[in-house]
Structure formats: structure tokens, C-alpha cells
Amino acid sequence: MNSPVTSQAPVAPLSAPREPSLPGPAGARTVRAAVAFGLAALNLRVAVASLSPVLREVRHDEHLSSFGAGALSTVPVVCFGAFAYLAPRLTRRFGPHRLLWWALLAMAGGIVLRSVPGVFALFGGTLIAGAAIAVGNVLMPQLIKHDFAGRAGLMLACYSLALSGGAALAAGVVVPLESATGWGWRQVLALMAIPALVAALAWLPELRVPERRSANRRRQGPVERGGADAAAPTLRALWRDRTAWAVTLYMGLQSLGYYAILSWLPTLLQDHGMSDSQAGWMLSFSSFPGMVASFAAPWLQHRLRPAFLAPLVGALLCATGFVGLLTSPVSGAYLWMTLLGLGQGLAIGLALGYIVARSPDAHHTGQLSTMAQGAGYLIACLGPLGLGLLHSVSGGWSLPIAVLLALLVVQTATAFGASRDRHVLESS
After folding, report:
1. Closest C-alpha to 369, from 241, 232, 242, 248
2. Residues 6+ apart with CB under 8 A from 335
3. What residues contact residue 209 under an 8 Å CB cut-off, 6+ apart?
């Protein structure tokens, strides 16, 4: 409610507290920055979720096979993983605030491009939007750790809520917009670029922050700069760290389950006799309990003890929903979608929270975010493809759901390390 260009370059240092960049009360600046951050986060699932409701029309107009349609749905998730590894290098070049602004503009451009007639534009625009989202995915936890360090729990909750809310909004408005305007899917999908442009406009005041910091850093001596740079970890070091791997695997496995359901739930329900419109609505409906759970995840992460209890609850909710889809998918659909939404919303909120909580500072957060979301989303892309393959091989949904249940066990096991109260690269 989830190939790679491996970079071992550290994220640009963000060692100093955020300095005022605009006149006005500090509280007003903080609220403005939080609103801009929320608008940016709202866009990180819009391009993906807006395509699913009109995928059948896209297939017809662009003459896509089932495999082509599946590949189109998988491209963004692959981008989330592969292009995440470019984020550290780009952050060093542009700074995190300016890079997020460019990512929002690229996102809008990709969304518009995929609405242009032709398969090349469709896949090319999807690729550009997915790459931009990948960079945004990596930057968000780092910005929370640095810009909102005193309110990290609240901002994590808002970030998770914005992800689920953006997906629900995009999935819910596309078909009604088609009916209300009489436009085709191309024009309606192009409208999804507007929220990204609004977010880029709201983020403009934040661009002055990294510019001033860069100017200050140029005035610093080499010893001062070297000390900050030396504190930043490399991806190479994190690849050897057990805690980093636990966070990465938990991120990847929960994303795998989410994107598998996002891609195939309507088909599963349609195969059991549910109408197309009702099946699409059930997918959107699951986002609403997911929003509640993702918002509550940071609070539960810090309050529930032992720490492992929160991810265990999330896994049990998902497992119950999966079993329900096997036994009575249509008659109990609202119940199963509520449980799945709660479980998956809690899982993504916890996964993002672990990236921040397991990092001692913004340097580590940026690199752990790169590893967890880079490798994690490459794992996640196996969900839509794997579930479709298992369905084709078995001719039903029992085997695919059984595999998802088995992966929940592995996901729960990784939560032992991810929820442990220690930082990455910390000596035992």
C-alpha cells in the first residue's frame, strides 16, 4: 500500500546541520521543506501504479503480447534496482537536493514520453521514469536522516504514507479520468506528469541549501574536507556486513511480494469469476489499509518489543491474506485485501525505517539506501515474472501462492537481523 552499474563511490558528505537558506521563521522553513518532501515522495509510485488499470488497452493499441505486457510492468522495478547504483555518483556531482529536483523533472519527461505512440516511446519513457524514481528512492531516506533528523520517525511515517497514497491515487483516477474526459489512455497517462512538475516547483527553494553548502566546502581546507569524506562508507564495505544484508534482503523480499500482487491480483480474481472493474477496485482498496499500516510502522518499530515482533505481525497478516486468496478469493476478497494491505504496508514502512535506523549518520544512510534498494528491487523484479511463470506452468494459482508463502518465511528470518538494534559496520 519494490544490469546494475556498481558504484563504490561514497555519497556526497552531508556533515553539517542544515543551515537556513531563506528568510522567515525556522518553523515556516521546516514546514515548507516537509511539504515539498511529501509532494516529491507522492510521485515515487505514480508512474507504476497508473499503468496497471489501462494495461489491457495499452496491449491492444501497441499490439503487445502477454510477455511484452509483463516486461512493460517489470521494467520500472528493474530500474529501481539497477539505477539505484548511480545515485551515489550523481549525489556527489549535484548534491542530494538538486539531484532530487532533476529526478522529478526526468520523471515527468518519462511519463510524457511513454504516452507518445510507438513501442519505443512506451518502453523508453517507462525506462526514464523508472530510473528517475530509482534515484528518488535512494535519496529519500538520506534526506530524512539529514534534513529532519529530529523528526525522523514522523517523516518516515509521512514518506511511507505518501508512497501508498500516491499509488492508490494513481490507480484510482486513471479510469474515471478516461470516462470523464473522453480521452484515451495516452492523454490520461500524460496527465500523471503534472504532480511531478508541481513537486519540482515546490522543491525549488531547497536548491539554495546545497549551493550554499558547496560554497562553504570550497572555502574549507583539505584537512576539513578529508575528515568528512573519510567517514563515509563504501558500498564494498557494506557488501560484507551482515546487518546491511539483512536490511537489503528484507527490503527485497517484501517488495517481491508487493509487486507480484500488484501485477497479478486482478488476473487471479478475474480467473475466479470477479468482473474486471471489481478486480481493479480490490487492488486499489488494498492501498487504504496499507496507508494506515505504513504510517504506523515507525511508531511500531520503536514501541513493540521485542523488535522482531513488528515484522512478524506483518508477515502473519500477509500469510493470512494469501491463504484466503487460495480458499475463498471472491467471497472474502475485502477481508483478504485488508489483511494484505495491512501486512504489506507495515512491511514497506519497516523496511524504509530499518535503512535509517541501522545507519549512524547521513553518509551511511545514503550508501545503505543504495545497497538495500538497488539489490532489493532487483530481487523484487522476480516477483511479477516468477508468479506469471509459475501460473503458466501449473495452470492455476495454488503453486504461485504457495511460493509466496514460503518466501514470507525467508522474509521473516531476515527480519531478525534487520530489526536488531545495531548500526551497519558496527563491531560486535
Report:
1. 248
2. 324
3. 18, 19, 21, 97
Least Cα distance to 52 among 76, 82, 23, 85 occurs for: 76
Burial class from Cβ neighbours inside 10 Å (0-12, 13-18, 19+) for residue 57 reads middle
Contacts of 288 (CB under 8 A, 6+ apart): 1, 168, 341
269/273 Cα distance (integer angstroms)? 7
Q: Which of 390, 380, 411 is nearest to 130 (CA)?
A: 380
Query: What HEC string does 266-318 produce?
Result: HHHHHHCCCCHHHHHHHHHHCHHHHHHHHHHHHHHHHHCCCCCHHHHHHHHHH
Whole-number Cα distances in Å, 299 to 65, 282, 294, 308, 415:
45, 27, 10, 14, 17
**224, three cell numbers:** 576539513
| Cell of residue 330, nine digits | 471472491
Convert the pLDDT of each residue in 59-80 to its tens digit: 788 887 767 777 787 888 888 8
CA distance 21 to 369: 26
How many angstroms separate the Cα of 250 from the Cα of each of 50, 269, 312? 26, 27, 12
For residue 254, give the amino acid letter.
Q
Distance CA 386, CA 419 (A): 28
pLDDT (0 to 100) of residue 145: 77
End-to-end CA distance of the chain, in Å?
36
**Of residues 59, 72, 152, the one with CA closest to residue 352:** 152
77-120 pLDDT, tens per residue?
888 888 888 888 888 888 889 999 999 999 999 999 999 998 99
Tens of pLDDT, residues 222-263:
333 333 444 445 667 888 889 999 999 999 999 999 888 877
Please state which CATH number belongs to domain 26-211+222-418.
1.20.1250.20
Determine the Cα–Cα distance for residues 345 and 260; give it in Å rounded to an integer.
14
**% pLDDT > 90, the chain:** 29
Is residue 340 within 8 A of residue 321, CB to CB? The reply is yes
Q: What is the DSSP string of 109-172?
A: HHHHHTTSSSHHHHHHHHHHHHHHHHHHHHHHHHHHHHHTGGGHHHHHHHHHHHHHHHHHHHHH
